[in-house]
Amino acid sequence: MSAIKELLKEIDNLTPIPAVVNQIMAVAQEPGSSMADIAEIIRYDPLITANILRMCNSAYYALPRRVESVQDAVTMMGMDQVIDMVLLKSGAANLTKGQSGYGLHEGELWKHAVSSALISRDLAEKKGSKNKQMIFTAALLKDIGKVILDRFVGDSFSKIDSLVRTKGFSFKEAEKKVIGIDHAELGGRVAEMWDFSEKMVSMIRNHHLNDEAARDDLDTQILYVADNVCMMMGIGGGADGLAYRFHKDVLRKLGITPVDLQEIIASFGSEMKKVEELLKVI
Description:
Elements: H1 2-9, H2 19-29, H3 35-42, H4 46-56, H5 70-77, H6 79-95, H7 108-126, H8 132-141, H9 144-155, H10 157-167, H11 171-179, H12 183-193, H13 198-205, H14 218-232, H15 248-254, H16 258-269, H17 272-281
Helix pairs in contact: 2-3, 3-5, 4-6, 5-6, 6-7, 6-8, 7-8, 7-14, 7-17, 8-13, 8-14, 9-12, 10-11, 12-13
């Protein structure tokens, strides 16, 4: 119990997601929201405004003319793209360092987060989810618990690995058994402390579909598939790699065949160079 209390205290050492991000997401979820509404929120935050303008004017986006205001950015890029920029920049601070306990070098967890977010967004559009931005954000932050748990996993890795190899535990189950909490549950605690919605907290906490009810939630299903696609491609897998439960029924519920899965992997594989370029801009 004392170890868990120590872990929860370390949440305070994370760089908090700016409050304006929650405001932006809340407005984006409203049916009647407009680009002007989003621009109005962003333009009063000088740091986010500066980051958006810098990203918009980078070679990566190659816009036809220089962007001088948030309104210009929203008009030229579209509301979804600008919100993506805000979320990407806000998530970068905590996820770019290495996590040696998980066998991840500097930038690997961040690359996994961005890749799974992009795949999640594409799947959300294809499957008709109304919560694209929420899914995108959950994909970015779903492994935030690893940032805190890293040292503890490193100290207990031999015990965790033994349970995975000899007892048939998933990596997450082994974390829970040895440390008392797993990275997904800890990520949910972080999301709660950052005042994310109950739905967002649930998605982060259940991104490995450890809860039966989560397997029937479209948005969490999408998040789960995107996470697995990244691991199958070897993007930020680390020491835990594919040591998780794979729920084939989720593919059936989403209407994704093994062939579809291969096509998703192949399609995103061709986009990896763009992802690398995007990471440099962020």
